[in-house]
Write a structure and sequence with these properties.
The chain is of the alpha+beta class and 247 residues long. It contains 6 helices and 14 strands.
Length: 247
């Protein structure tokens, strides 16, 4: 059997859109926004609710959280369980603040596909210190994502190719399609760490090989920044593999 490996790198805010009306859209379709007034409207409401409810700032000024929420067709919301407890624990105040504020926000806008409202995942960067000390009208976090090994615009293609080259598939064969979903952090020093499998193949040996391959990626990244300040940032990545008979 010849194994054909397809690696799909998914930036945390960029996901493929499902077509079925019964499925959850993993991102908002192009030119659609998840909140009344756009992202600026979301952050304005966030600040106003903090003031109105007299919510308290975080003692750790460096906390940041990438908040995900499911917006349903009726404009109600559902919180999404974070599968990385280490990240939550390190940013617990920002995590709790995002969820507390969301309970009072009323501007949620469902996604639309084929003329019908659908459930969709919306994502926001929450940097609490900005809402207490640095807020301004029209606020939007000035964000720059991580860049692998200074490769520039096509850096994710380089990461994909180098990761695939390190995977040792010779010991494995399949008669089906499998998917592995992963998350990892690029820390403030530009190092890849905290790799977890959020969806496993069910073959422990193969899953361990995936983890070891990630840990062997030693080249540095330029860290993500918000308002010019380096931050820890999480990527989501999906591996899909199929098998073909080799004649």
């Amino acid at each position: 059997m010849k194994t054909k490996l397809i690696l799909i790198v998914v930036f945390l805010f960029h996901f493929s859109v499902a077509n079925s009306q019964t499925e959850i859209l993993q991102k908002y379709p192009e030119n659609q926004i998840p909140y009344e007034g756009g992202y600026v409207g979301y952050y304005k409401d966030f600040h106003d609710i903090i003031i109105e409810k007299k919510l308290q700032p975080c003692s750790n000024k460096q906390e940041i959280y990438q908040f995900s929420v499911l917006i349903k067709p009726d404009s109600s919301i559902q919180f999404i369980r974070d599968l990385n407890p280490k990240v939550v624990e390190a940013n617990k105040c920002a995590y709790n603040l995002a969820r507390e504020v969301a309970k009072y926000q009323k501007g949620w806008k469902p996604a639309s596909a084929d003329g019908n409202n659908q459930s969709a995942v919306a994502r926001f960067i929450i940097f609490p210190d900005d809402f207490f000390n640095n807020y301004r009208e029209g606020y939007y976090p000035l964000f720059n994502g991580p860049v692998y090994n200074n490769y520039g615009k096509d850096h994710l293609d380089h990461f994909r190719k180098e990761l695939v080259a390190r995977l040792d598939l010779r010991r494995f064969s399949w008669n089906d399609i499998f998917t592995v979903e992963t998350e990892f952090t690029i820390n403030k020093e530009g190092k890849l760490e905290d790799i977890i499998l959020t969806k496993k193949t069910g073959l422990d040996e193969f899953d361990r090989m995936i983890l070891l391959t990630f840990k062997g990626m030693k080249k540095k990244w330029t860290p993500a920044t918000i308002n010019g300040q380096p931050i820890d940032f999480r990527f989501r990545l999906t591996l899909r593999a199929t098998t073909d008979i080799e004649y």
